[in-house]
Every structure is written in structure tokens, then in C-alpha cells.
Design a protein that fits this description.
By secondary structure, this protein is mainly alpha-helical. The protein is built from ten helices and two strands. It has one domain. It has a two-stranded antiparallel sheet with strand order 1-2. A hairpin with a 2-residue loop joins strand 1 and strand 2. Helix 1 packs across helix 2, helix 6 packs antiparallel against helix 7 and helix 6 runs antiparallel to helix 8. The longest helix is centred in the N-terminal third of the chain and has 47 residues.
């Protein structure tokens, strides 16, 4: 992978220097390949650990406070199944092969709400889970399933972020080596002009772009912005699943399922507005945070922790 990047991007240097391209190929392609593997590995491990431990701690604290008598074994099962079933819901993405533009976003907006909330309900109605539910703990089991679902999604999203971050770091090093090496070449006036016009400016522009990513606030290859977004998304999935669990044990499954779907579509509408540039990043994050925290606090205190 790194060797291909070097060959495609800096193969032109071969014609200018017999020693420069082999230097890039050996130093970058071989040694940096190991760097990518190490950075990828560390980032993915951190992503998985955070994605599972953050929601796990939340429901363990709730359990200790209000549901100490409930079996941890079944709660762990509900949590892990919630994480696994995210990938079942993700199979809905097959329609990206047939749709594009506004049609794709419109279908995704609606499908995401209905399908993701449906698979959360699917876990709750599994016999060995459903048989343990009653009006006392239905919302709590829903919360646990939703936390697991959000954790499963976070594993995919944050692992992708970590892998991209390590590649950007590596490509930045390659670009810096190339930029430094160009200055050592013995070029004719025509070659110097061509380099200054067509090679150096885009290379510097790319380096600046890479620096903006690498220097952004991050932890072990995970941008703090991505971590924060996943934290909020996990709380949202927990809230909607708790709503479904609350309705399930009261014989109002369809009603509360549709409430969760409407909330899901409503929140995702702001993401669509952000994607199309109608809503700025700060405004989107502010709206997203207020809605998610307000919903989670309400569900937690009125449905999960409330004593009937």
C-alpha cells in the first residue's frame, strides 16, 4: 500500500535523480509500512475498548443503583447482542448501489430509523430476554440493548477513524521527505519551473491539509470530535431502545416503536441538513447535543429509574 503510494505519487522523481526514488521507496515503503500497522493496531484497540467500556460502565452504574437484583448474565447477553445486531441493521446499506444524491439520503433517513429501531426490538423479544422483562425493568433492558447497539456502531466508526488517521500520519511523513528531497535535486531551469508550477504547490497544499488533521485534538489516533459524537450517539440509541422496552412490557409495542422511529428520523434530519451545508458544524453539534442529552436524562429519570 505505501509502496504504491510512493510509486504513483513520486515516480516522477526517478527521471530527476537515480538515488532519490530508491531512497523514498526503501525508507517509506518498507519502514513506514510497519508504522502504519502499529498505528492502526493501537488506534483500533483503543476504538474497540472505548466503544465497549463507555456504554458498559453506564448500564453497570444504573444496575447498581436500581437493578441490583437483575441477572448480570442476561444483561451482558442483551448488551452483546445489541452490539452484534448493529451489523445486521447495517446490511440495509445495500441500496447505496442503486441510489445517489437526494434520493439516497431520503431513503437512508427513513430506512435507518425503521430498521435500527426494529433490530433493537428484535433483541428484546427474543424468548430468553422477553421472559425476564416486566413493567419494572423493561425500559432498563431496552437501555442496555441500545447501549450495546451504539457501542457496536462506535466500533465500526471509530476504527475507521483510527485507520484513516494513521494513514494520514504516514502520508504526511512521505510528503515531507519528498518535499525536503526535491530541494537537493540538480534541476535545469525548465525542470525548476515545472516543479514550482505543478509539483511543489499541490504538495505543500496536501501537507497543510494533513497537518490540520494530525494537529487536531486527538487521543491515540482518535479525534476528540469523533469520540464526542459517538458518546452522544450511544446515549441516543440507549434512549430510543429504552422507549421501545418501556412500551413492550406495557402491551404498547407498536406505539412506542413508532415514537422511537420518529425521534430517530427527526434527529437524523439535522445530520442531513449538515451534510448539504444548510446547517453549520457548530450549530449541528449544539442541536445534536441538546436533543440527545435532554432525551437521555428524561428517559433515564422518568422511565428507567422511576419507581412505579
Amino acid at each position: 500500500m505505501i509502496d504504491n503510494y510512493v510509486r504513483i505519487k513520486f515516480g516522477f522523481l526517478t527521471s530527476c535523480s537515480k538515488d532519490l526514488y530508491p531512497l523514498l521507496a526503501s525508507n517509506c515503503a518498507i519502514k513506514l509500512e510497519w508504522l502504519v500497522l502499529i498505528l492502526d493496531g493501537i488506534g483500533v484497540v483503543v476504538a474497540i475498548a472505548f466503544s465497549l467500556l463507555y456504554p458498559l460502565v453506564i448500564w453497570l452504574l444504573v444496575k447498581k443503583f436500581r437493578y441490583a437484583q437483575d441477572s448480570s448474565r442476561y444483561l451482558f447477553a442483551a448488551f452483546l447482542l445489541g452490539a452484534a445486531v448493529f451489523y445486521l441493521a447495517y446490511l440495509r446499506k445495500f441500496y447505496i448501489m442503486f441510489l445517489s444524491g437526494i434520493a439516497l439520503y431520503g431513503v437512508d433517513l427513513v430506512a435507518t430509523g425503521f430498521i435500527e429501531e426494529a433490530v433493537k426490538l428484535l433483541i428484546l423479544i427474543l424468548p430468553f430476554i422477553r421472559n425476564r422483562l416486566d413493567e419494572r425493568n423493561g425500559a432498563f433492558y431496552g437501555l442496555v440493548v441500545g447501549l450495546g447497539f451504539g457501542g457496536g456502531e462506535a466500533i465500526l466508526m471509530l476504527s475507521s477513524v483510527a485507520a484513516s488517521y494513521s494513514l494520514i500520519q504516514t502520508f504526511l511523513i512521505i510528503d515531507l521527505i519528498a518535499l525536503t528531497s526535491i530541494g537537493t535535486l540538480a534541476l535545469s531551469p525548465i525542470e525548476t519551473l515545472l516543479f514550482n508550477l505543478y509539483i511543489i504547490p499541490p504538495l505543500i497544499s496536501e501537507i497543510n491539509t494533513f497537518f490540520s488533521v494530525v494537529l487536531a485534538p486527538s487521543f491515540m489516533g482518535l479525534s476528540l470530535g469523533s469520540i464526542y459524537e459517538r458518546m452522544m450517539a450511544i446515549l441516543f440509541h440507549a434512549s430510543t431502545a429504552a422507549i421501545i422496552g418501556y412500551g413492550l412490557v406495557r402491551g404498547k409495542t407498536l406505539k412506542y416503536y413508532l415514537v422511537a422511529v420518529v425521534l430517530h428520523i427527526f434527529l437524523n434530519t439535522f445530520a442531513i441538513l449538515y451534510i448539504f451545508g444548510i446547517l453549520g458544524a457548530i450549530a449541528f453539534e449544539a442541536i445534536f447535543t441538546v436533543i440527545v442529552l435532554a432525551l437521555f436524562v428524561y428517559i433515564l429519570y422518568k422511565k428507567v429509574l422511576a419507581v412505579d
